[in-house]
Amino acid sequence: MPHEWDAAAYDRLPVPMTGWGLVVLERLELRGDERVLDAGCGTGQVTEALRRRLPHGQVVALDASASMLERARERLGDARVIYLRHDLAEPIPIDVVDAVLSTATFHWVPDHDRLFANLAGVLRPGGRLAAQCGGAGNLRRVSDAAARAASIDLEAAKTYAGPQETTQRLRVAGFTQIECWLQEKPTPLPPEDLEPYLRTVILSGEVARRTDAEANDLVHAVAIELAQPEIDYVRLNITATRA
């Protein structure tokens, strides 16, 4: 399974992904009675808005992190929500859904061919996929700072793909009506939030493999090397229909 997250710390930070996720949710046309998979629900902030769009439907809230799912359950309860801890790199053990929503998750899955095949396997014909994740060029400045500060490769085991390769992968997986595009989303942070943000979000995988003291040294070194408290996000947007 992918690494664990500090869900409580994540919820305290000014993460921009929630606002971006709400925009992605608007791209899903919903009657209100559908069954929708939130593929990478995190702490449930966007999932909460999704459930409001489904007064007679159901959400499958999936995440690979137990702490994220626990936080989502605290936020949402059990009304019209099923929780599933699962790695999207593996076939998804659920009944068919009418739509798939995903925000800030796909880039954590190294093999996008398997990812899209797994999503197609649980999405009904004609069902819609709306997603956003890190895309080509995402965090390049931060990654360079991490390489200089600590000789670590932040892009290892991640996929920051572009629109053309993603379109081809989706087509092979059985999707049609595909639209993929990149957006640059530079995100300034308050200086006092830079190190907590690096620790909890961007360096979370590296932090999980270290002692507290080692993690503190790593985060501080990357922050010093980065200097400017701005995160150079590039987002890959995806909409598609299951053929």
Description:
The protein has 243 residues and is α/β, with parallel strands linked by helices. The protein has one domain: Vaccinia Virus protein VP39 (Rossmann fold). It contains ten helices and seven strands. The protein has helices at residues 7-12, 17-26, 45-52, 66-76, 112-122, 140-150, 163-173, 194-202, 204-208, 212-226, and strands spanning 35-39, 58-63, 81-85, 97-103, 123-134, 175-188, 230-242. Strands 3-2-1-4-5-7-6 form a seven-stranded mixed β-sheet, sandwiched between helices. Helix 6 crosses helix 10 (212-226). 44% of the residues are buried.
From the alpha carbons, calculate the radius of gyration and give it in angstroms. Answer: 18 Å
Number of helices: 10
Let me know the CATH homologous superfamily.
Vaccinia Virus protein VP39
The name of the CATH topology is Rossmann fold
Determine the mean pLDDT: 96
- The biggest beta sheet, please? 7 strands, mixed
Reading the helices and strands in chain order gives HHEHEHEEHEHHEHHHE
Q: How many DSSP E strands? A: 7
Give the spatial strand order of the biggest sheet.
3-2-1-4-5-7-6
Strand proportion, as a percent range, falls in 25-35%
Q: How would you describe the shape? A: globular
Give the % helix: 25-40%
Q: Ends: how far apart?
A: 30 Å
Oligomer type:
single chain
CATH hierarchy, class: Alpha Beta
Structural class: alpha/beta
**In CATH terms, what is the architecture?**
3-Layer(aba) Sandwich
Domain tally: 1
Low-pLDDT sequence parts = none
